[in-house]
Amino acid sequence: MYAKAFLKRLDADAITISPYMGSDSVKPFLEYKDKWAIVLGLTSNEGSADFQQQQLNGKELYLHVIETSSKWGNENNMMFVVGATKVQMLSNIRKIVPNHFLLVPGIGAQGGSLQEVCKYGLTKEIGLLVNSSRAIIYASNELDFAEKAANEAKKIAEEMSNQQIADDLNISLRTVETHRRNIMQKLNVKNAVSQDYFFSNENILRFLINLYSKIS
Length: 216
Prior knowledge:
Elements: H1 2-9, E1 14-17, E2 36-42, H2 48-51, E3 55-56, E4 59-60, H3 61-69, E5 78-82, H4 90-96, E6 102-104, H5 114-121, E7 128-130, H6 133-137, H7 145-169, H8 173-186, H9 192-200, H10 202-215
Parallel strand pairs: 1-2, 2-5, 5-6, 6-7
Antiparallel strand pairs: 3-4
């Protein structure tokens, strides 16, 4: 009933659901083509320690939950919520679901590190949906809100892009950031339109940084 209401009648693309009532409460949401069930795995709030991080048969409950529920669906119809404030646990989660997308709240105002999330959570297909609500929503209380909010969103996107390039080229994040600035200066890229072009074309940027790292 609930699955039909949200995924068919309201035509939602995805819905976040709790797995704690078991498979029969999750599987109905997996029956709809091109829809996603986003299962609560490990949340970013402090209260997650009350139940999710409790030990059960030698390992934390959230690991049991993710391991069991991942068998109900697949990487094409199920993803998991994993809080950015629990980044130290990401590597263990990736061992269980190496290819599933993870919805990651907690970046910014809650103190989650995007660099650390990318370090432990990125896959070849990116594999991350990063949520940074407060930093964008509360970017400004003035008339410049649209500009400030856009800048915050762009900052997060650039940081994530830099980390992936660093991983792919096996160089440090700081090196990527330095080369990025130097390339923009050498190409005399100053106006916002040109910067957006280079920043949004990751393949071009990756090539230039790789080339620059070899000749600098």
